[in-house]
Amino acid sequence: MKIFSEETCGQLLTRAFDEREKELAAVKEILSAVRARGDRAVFEYEEKFDGTTLTQENFRVSEAEFAAAYAAVEPEFLESLKKAIDNVYGYHVRVGRQDTVRSANGRTTGYVVRAVERAGIYVPGGTAPLSSSVLMGVLPAKAAGVGRIVVVTPAKAGKISPYTLVAAKECGVDEVYKCGGAQAIAALAYGTESVPKVDVIAGPGNIFVTLAKKEVYGQVGIDMLAGPSEILIVADSSADPDYVAADVLSQAEHDVLARAIVITTDAALAEKIAAAVEEQLARLPREPIARKSIGTGGGIIVVNSLDRACALANEIAPEHLELYVKDPDALLPSIRNAGAVFLGGYTPEPVGDYFAGPDHILPTSGSAKFFQVLNEDIFTRKMSVISYTKDALLTDGADIVRLAESEGLTAHANAVAIRMQKEGKKA
């Protein structure tokens, strides 16, 4: 793992979302085909990309397939899964937003929160079966009160991982469709003969999924534009280099495009972390992926203070940020831009990935500066509520009329003035 000074680390600081014209053209073609031909187009793309032969009879996962999935997973997995579901769902229910309506002097204002009617959750199924992404996509929607939740996930040669199917069933989802990529996003956005059109699409995916979500935004709502996974670790001399190296590799094994960065105030620690990364890499089953990721998107930056470390962290705006320092709580107020923050040496990133409760579907590529972690707010809408009594309108009416007339909107002004005149009040 390369070591950089603050003066030479520029290549690590930013990674903008890459649209890639060739992939975008392919995505637009897929979206157009599914919009025009529905299920038939989806089936053609599934055959082409995943080797899955689909019909309207086997497109949706059957109860027999769910039952087979339960038979295939270990009882210990199911036990751990249930605990994770309790934590994640309980967290989202606890932090959910409530209606806020206040009345004073004849004026009632505020908002009421309403869940969308239908949500589509994309669950990746490429290089690893990400059953945890089922929990992180579905449970915030359930906590928000969404009535119909549709899951789409790739099926390789017609098969979905049993871990994914069991997670979906345990989360209360019955509607799972065997499709991935841009064709799955198109099916959710436009609807097909089998897949219902949804109001919001959430969940991470590859570049084709991300570009498709960007293209259909406006037709439906989306959570964010997620790219390859990232971790940034701020470490001082109190950090254990073996732990830091393990956390670096926990993200590097995701994808050759993943990014893993350490910022430290201790040059000697940087050398120890680099050595520990190399030692642990050799033992990883996914070593080729992790090694390429570290080589192209990883590095250790040595800075002269924790203040500078926080400033760089805010510039990078990472998906996952670990504050592995002696007093992480003292640093937290300095952090403005991150998808999720993990405090202390005993809170490695996988604690959040699987179990703690907060979501692991997070903004990447610096978009934590304007996107937020997936949460129940993504699946709700605020509707304003306004109520004036007669006396309140008569009190405020002249001001409202004056402002409307200043814009040349006389009918707006008249809607208030006519009421004032009938009540004997001058507008």
Helix content: 40-55%
Sequence stretches where pLDDT stays below 50 over 5 or more residues: none
List the total number of helices: 17
Question: What overall form do the CA principal axes indicate?
Answer: globular
Task: Give the N-to-C terminal Cα separation.
Answer: 73 Å
Oligomeric state as shown = single chain
* Cross-sheet strand order for the largest sheet: 1-11-10-9-12-13
The percentage of residues in β strands lies in: 15-25%
Provide mean pLDDT, rounded: 93
Alpha-carbon Rg, integer: 25 Å
Task: Describe the structure in brief.
The protein is α/β, with parallel strands linked by helices.
Essential attributes:
globular; 17 helices; alpha/beta; five-stranded parallel beta sheet; 14 strands; 427 residues
Description:
With 427 residues, this protein is α/β, with parallel strands linked by helices. It is built from 17 helices and 14 strands. It has helices spanning 10-13, 21-37, 39-50, 63-72, 75-95, 131-144, 162-170, 181-190, 207-216, 241-252, 267-281, 287-297, 306-316, 328-331, 349-354, 390-406, 410-422; strands at 3-5, 100-104, 107-115, 118-122, 148-153, 176-178, 200-202, 221-222, 230-235, 259-264, 298-302, 320-324, 340-343, 380-388. The longest helix has 21 residues, at 75-95. Helices cover 46% and strands 17% of the residues.
